[in-house]
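User: Putative Fic family protein, Leptospirillum ferrooxidans:
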Amino acid sequence: MKKIGRAGQYIHQLKGYKAFIPKFLPPDPGIVMDHEILTAGSFADRAIGRLDGSIQTLPDPDLFVFMYIRKEAVLSSQIEGTQSSLDDVLEAEAQVFSSRRPKDVDEVINYIGAMNLGLSRLKELPVSVRLIKVIHQKLLVNVRGADRQPGELRRSQNWIGPGGCTLHEATFVPPPPEIVPDALSNLEQFLHSEEQLPDLIKIGLAHAQFETIHPFLDGNGRIGRLLITLLFCERGILQRPVLYLSHYFKKHREQYYDLLQKIRDEGDWESWLKFFLVAVGEVSHEATETARQIVALREKHREMIIECFGGSTANGNKVLEYLYSHPIIDVQDIVTVTGASFTAANNLMKRFVTHNLLREITGNVRNRQFRYGEYIDLFGNI
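Assistant: Predicted structure for Putative Fic family protein:
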């Protein structure tokens, strides 16, 4: 049933276009918690609980966060049109030179930096407009969009539509800039209010409202998806950021955007929330399976090292642990990790290559880099 005006209304502006003025949260009338929403919510709660539990039982949970964050960063950035893959990002971070690497890899690396900054600042700041500005500035530093007021709320009208379209041809025109501060202030108040709604519902509403407000000149989609991760961690739903929700959003990109628009046009919050809850449930289930596969891989490779590395076993296991947060390494990394001489480190690297734990990826005679492929490949070809 359509509820036109429930989420806000389109208002004619002096320059002849219509901009959308969102109503404050929570929605009025309230969310209809029908059977589909309750079922999807129950599945999502159970799945995300299992994910959190599976990560907490790992010997060193922080060791396994590294790749989850990078997968989310790559996928969220790809939704916005970047071409860089997970391997591109890992190679860039490892300073592997490649003339074929997309130029937008720095945008993904900035996303990783913005997420890590946001998570660290959560210790002293709640999820708030202030925190959102901080991570937005980090997201756009020295990359495309750096000239579009990083860390500052927009002071001009923006719009959403096909490339090259004008304001009058836009698919959606967010609220005028003078509306943005109050709209964000309400969003912040809603997040920290005593409103009796399940946390997942609140987070789903917050993401959609943020995308509607579109408070920055660039980076709104990525910041809106970062907001989801920060809220999951702030509320203790996840102890660590291991949910790559952008995987589902990218896979169903058209539906993702259509449902956000349907909120504005028809007041249909419920269809969006069902989609969001299903996304949380499905991606949580997949991420839990990935955690299980990581543990199994780690044990298999520990056993191989114990069996095959002889007197190098202890150092071999040190390197193996290091690979889970640095899956592309060189011989000098082994020197640093183990304290061994360069010759001993080089011999240890040869053992890793001989037993197919690592593969050389540069083709160089010097400055060679090696990839821990079985681990990276657990996160898919993205």
